[in-house]
Amino acid sequence: MSDSKYFTTTKKGEIFELKAELNSDKKEKKKEAVKKVIASMTVGKDVSALFPDVVNCMQTDNLELKKLVYLYLMNYAKSQPDMAIMAVNTFVKDCEDPNPLIRALAVRTMGCIRVDKITEYLCEPLRKCLKDEDPYVRKTAAVCVAKLHDINAQLVEDQGFLDTLKDLISDSNPMVVANAVAALSEIAESHPSSNLLDLNPQSINKLLTALNECTEWGQIFILDCLANYMPKDDREAQSVCERVTPRLSHANSAVVLSAVKVLMKFMEMLSKDLDYYGTLLKKLAPPLVTLLSAEPELQYVALRNINLIVQKRPEILKHEMKVFFVKYNDPIYVKLEKLDVMIRLASQANIAQVLAELKEYATEVDVDFVRKAVRAIGRCAIKVEQSAERCVSTLLDLIQTKVNYVVQEAIVVIKDIFRKYPNKYESVIATLCENLDSLDEPEARAAMIWIVGEYAERIDNADELLESFLEGFHDESTQVQLQLLTAIVKLFLKKPTETQELVQQVLSLATQDSDNPDLRDRGYIYWRLLSTDPVAAKEVVLAEKPLISEETDLIEPTLLDELICYIGTLASVYHKPPSAFVEGSRGALHRSLPPRTGSSESAESPDLAPSGGAPAEQPAVIPTQGDLLGDLLNLDLGPPVSGAPGATSSVPMGGVDLLGGGLDSLMGDEAEGMGGPSFSAPSAVMPSNLGAPLGGGLGDLFDLSGGVGTLSGSYVAPKTVWLPAVKAKGLEISGTFSRQVGALSMDLVLSNKALQVMSDFAIQFNRNSFGLAPAAPLQVHAPLAPNQSVELSLPLNTVGSVMKMDPLNNLQVAVKNNIDVFYFSTLYPLHILFVEDGKMERQMFLATWKDIPNENEAQFQIKDCPLSADAVSTKLQGSNIFTIAKRNVEGQDMLYQSLKLTNGIWVLAELRIQPGNPSLTVRGRVDPQALLSMPSWGAGGSPKEVMGSPGTLGKIKGPPSPQFIRSVGLWKVEGLQPNQINGADDFGRAKSLRPTLGMVWVSFGAPFQLYNHGLTKGRLPLLLSCPSPAFPQMPGP
């Protein structure tokens, strides 16, 4: 009879009966009882009361009964740890049983019982099993080491099990080798810093030998281990590839993908000129094609991996287009993936075949698939220029079908084709206009409006078409409203006499009747441009647009290289690195492809050292600890660089022109008029007397120390003890600081370790550098009993009294309760003061960076941060450090970033990231005048008034104070010409005065506030002041 009978019972009160049966003298009755217990346990009944009785059944020679008892133990040992110790003697005895199956079963079960009290008894049996004569026992024991390490890592290291595990890699049995590799890999993943798998050519040879003989999952473990190996040269890489290639013909798809991963990684080291390189490309295609004949779920996984492989090496599958053609019975998720791969493989050679397929797909019944097919035709036109005309013709044929969603998708992609090939296919506009009334989707309506506005001069009734959209302006989506506003302004600039009423109507709707800030701001900008200088408006609005790129959805190269290292895993299906979806240290492990053959990782630079001599020592130009600027830049940024920067980077700090061709080129011609030549900034080495950093360190923003993220992505340091109980009569205070969606808070844990109740809590801060103060009283709602703790979140603001502290982020706190008043000080991390509007405009960034002297710069290094430039930028943005620009210099990614403190001080930084190097280099700059303007930090003063006529700008009366007469960015002074301004130097050391669009733009160097109170009797009163909460911030130009 089947064992299913054990799951059909509905009896109640059977525990007593089972207890009696478990203690029966008859072996068969005992086995039946254990089966009933396991069945009850499986369906969720609590049978833990039978623990002692089931444990008594362990003393048996029957292997089936022993397995059942061990299964029960694994399930209930955690809830009955004291009872589980009763089974230890039996475990130890079973580990010496003559039957290897029982020995292996015992050690496996002991490893699965996650009870600390049992682990110490496991060590001796495990040591014996690791050296057992039977390979089945050894392979089981190898996995048990990994399980034990997860429970108690220190115990495993102390007992020397890791060394024994390493020895098993040389075992004669391939399955033992595979399990040893799997165990070491598992341990290494949870401890990335440890070098457990110290692979060398000898050990690699042993693994490759075992690869041919072990089971399929053993092969996967070994192949994944091989993928982490870095061959010393291309000859070794080729040798490994030759021995791995046979795995491509394995029946298990996981083995195939693991082999593909190894080959893709090692191909980086092979020269493309080698005959073997071409042979390897040919060998990779058939196994990938074979994967597409499996069931749909496996096809999907294979296609997601193929998508990555094709982006990295399209030549592998360039002749295999037909296998990606969609079948009628494919699920939608497979169809969409196949379509994506088809577009990536599209070329001039196969475009006719691809277009014929796509046109066929566009007549399918599945709406989502049809939409994607139509978009694919547009992507082919953009990718393969020779096919553009044929693609447009195909799209026109589809529009003639008059199927609504097909027409709308076709219009969206034709807009992109116009952007790629301007003034080439405008003959189709008439056909598009015929379908205007059928458009009901925002994206299609916006695309059609863009086409009408862009080619308004060629459409006779363009004003009527746009006016028809304007009738329901308020009912349109924001996307359509914005496009309509721009299109009508374009139309006005092309046909001003006929469309004046229309443009006034749309500007009125956008600025006066709309609640959308984006729409309102764009309306005001257009209105101001048109009313001030229509010629200039024409240059701005009708400027020549850059062509769109061929492939807009390619994965960023650094991320793609990382994902290639994760082929066959979940990361390759999500197309995200593990750190994006795996919590803890396992997700933080960063992998990258080896450097290509012939590329030098550390190119020699003539700037590194003078010829014929040792490297010249870089001058230490950073101010000392007592200096305000030194305080700010030394704060929270990581340890100082201990040696010459040339030692850590192939590009010397002093050898790169940061702004010439760099940020200047990003700004275009605008940057040229800012004044000041581009320069090569010397490297700044942090002097040793500054010592270790204060606070958490910038590295913490990258989650390197295991903190947590808030809702807005900002890093939160783990809680630490601020006030120990021995110093506060039994009151222990631990906590941390956080910033969530712009709100500051001090997160506290109050613990009562005294023998009396504590109540009447209150808190107060001393004056500090940034005016931190409690925004509400400390609320402890109930008295704190002995041995009790309470978690609180105290909201903070920055409107308290300001006094410069040493160090700058020092906070002195007083806490009162019914027992006494207690004092302590702590260091808060500076990034909680980084505000959300700290993204500086690019031109302003360039002007400010140039204006700050080189000596007001600090340099730091952040170690062990294995993140790509994009990942760094994303993580830092979570803590309100914004990336302004990005460029690549000789293989290094350079991020230019800005942040703004709550007191209005800006900090500018340059971040250097060398791919493959886990260390980042940071250079920071702060304008010293901004620091001087801080109340209680430097000199104080009151606002100055500047009087002058509209023709001239008078000098400041009295001796000018620098903190009041410098500014950041460009500010417009209307009604003046450069030759009419007197005393420009007195008015803030203006970097440049130049006419733009009939106005004068004046640029200054640090924050200030300008108030134009209007013209009075032909004079222009202005008010200059330092940043202060008392004055509202004036917007930029």
Provide an overview of this structure.
It holds the Pfam family Alpha_adaptinC2. It comes from Anolis carolinensis (Green anole). With 1037 residues, this protein is α+β, with helices and mostly antiparallel strands. Among the domains are: 95 residues; 88 residues, no CATH class; 109 residues, Immunoglobulin-like (Sandwich); 107 residues, TATA-Binding Protein. The protein is built from 37 helices and 21 strands. The protein has a 5-stranded antiparallel beta sheet with strand order 3-4-5-8-7, with no helix packed on it. Helix 26 packs antiparallel against helix 27. The N and C termini lie far apart (87 Å). The relative contact order is 0.04. The C terminus is likely disordered.
What are the SSEs and their pairings?
Elements: H1 15-22, H2 27-42, H3 51-56, H4 63-76, H5 81-84, H6 88-94, H7 100-112, H8 116-130, H9 135-151, H10 153-158, H11 161-167, H12 174-190, H13 201-211, H14 216-227, H15 234-244, H16 253-266, H17 275-291, H18 296-312, H19 332-345, H20 351-361, H21 367-383, H22 388-400, H23 404-420, H24 429-434, H25 442-454, H26 462-470, H27 478-494, H28 500-511, H29 517-532, H30 534-541, H31 557-564, H32 570-574, H33 628-634, H34 659-667, E1 708-709, E2 715-716, E3 720-723, E4 731-740, E5 743-752, E6 762-765, E7 773-774, E8 788-797, E9 810-816, E10 821-827, H35 842-851, E11 857-862, H36 869-878, E12 882-889, E13 892-900, E14 906-913, E15 920-925, H37 928-932, E16 944-946, E17 969-973, E18 992-996, E19 999-1004, E20 1009-1012, E21 1022-1025
Antiparallel strand pairs: 1-2, 3-4, 4-5, 5-8, 6-9, 7-8, 9-10, 11-15, 12-13, 13-14, 14-15, 16-21, 17-19, 18-19, 20-21
